[in-house]
Amino acid sequence: GQQVMQIPQYQHVQEGEDFTTYCNSSTTLSNIQWYKQRPGGHPVFLIQLVKSGEVKKQKRLTFQFGEAKKNSSLHITATQTIDVGTYFCAGFGNEKLTFGTGTRLTIIP
Amino acid sequence: GAGVSQSPSNKVTEKGKDVELRCDPISGHTALYWYRQSLGQGLEFLIYFQGNSAPDKSGLPSDRFSAERTGGSVSTLTIQRTQQEDSAVYLCASSVKRGMETQYFGPGTRLLVL
Q: Which residues on A lie below 8 Å from B40 (Cβ)?
């Protein structure tokens, strides 16, 4: 079945450093979504990418969808303490939405 | 408008007891999902409802787990004869339709089985 993996599982960065999480699917995806879960909270939708090679930006966050529509990345520039949380990708393929394993980001002030 | 609501927010039960968890999706959303999240872990898909179609139960971990969705709205997840390994946060999400639309998550029910 479809599998979606994310790396790294954990990332600790100094405040102000950049952060990237990578998402890889075992199958070609129709679209990919990204969610953020703050500590103690529930996942909240960030963005959806549909087109091959698509790049979208939200302030300091940059999202990319690979040309083959099997991988995606989220890059945060100059991290801040508000960025703390776990970032999940979710890939839709074969009529099923599969969440990635998540990357937990912690910030060292 | 109101988001996805879940009740109870916290549930402590004894091993072997049955529990029922409730989810009220956003009005008009035809797709409803249940996930389980153990402490510090990712989202484990449990079950999915879409309109009047047969639910996708492929994620249910054992026959102790079951779910219903009455009238295409409220859903109840039932865990029979709870075990300590069932302790987790149970999250419900709804979307307008499967896959292409944003999933809106409820706050979750934190279940502790003693």
A: 104
Residue contact B98–A95, C-beta within 8 A: yes
Q: Which two tokens stand for residue B54?
A: 């047969």
User: For every one of its 114 residues, what pLDDT tens digit does chain B have, with 9 covering 90 and above?
Assistant: 589 999 999 999 999 999 999 999 999 898 999 999 998 788 999 999 988 888 999 899 999 999 999 887 999 999 999 999 999 999 999 998 765 678 899 999 999 999
Q: What is the mean pLDDT of chain A?
A: 94
Q: How many residues does chain A have?
A: 109
Question: In this complex, do B100 and A42 lie within 8 Å of one another by their Cβ atoms?
Answer: no
CA dist A18 and A20 (Å) reads 7
Cβ–Cβ < 8 Å for A83, A76: yes
- Separation of alpha carbons B27 and A27, rounded Å: 33
For residue range A30-50, list pLDDT tens digits in order.
999 999 999 999 999 999 999
- Cα–Cα–Cα angle for B84, A89, B58, rounded to 5 degrees: 50
Adjacent-strand bridge partners of A88: A35
Q: Which of A45, A95, A101 sits opposite B103 (nearest CB)?
A: A45
The pair of structure tokens assigned to A43 is 């996942």
CA A67 to CA A65: how far, in whole Å? Answer: 7
Measured CA to CA, the distance from residue B29 to residue B51 in angstroms comes to 9
**Taking CB atoms and an 8 Å limit, are A97 and B103 in contact across chains?**
yes
Integer Cα distance of B68 and B43 in angstroms = 20
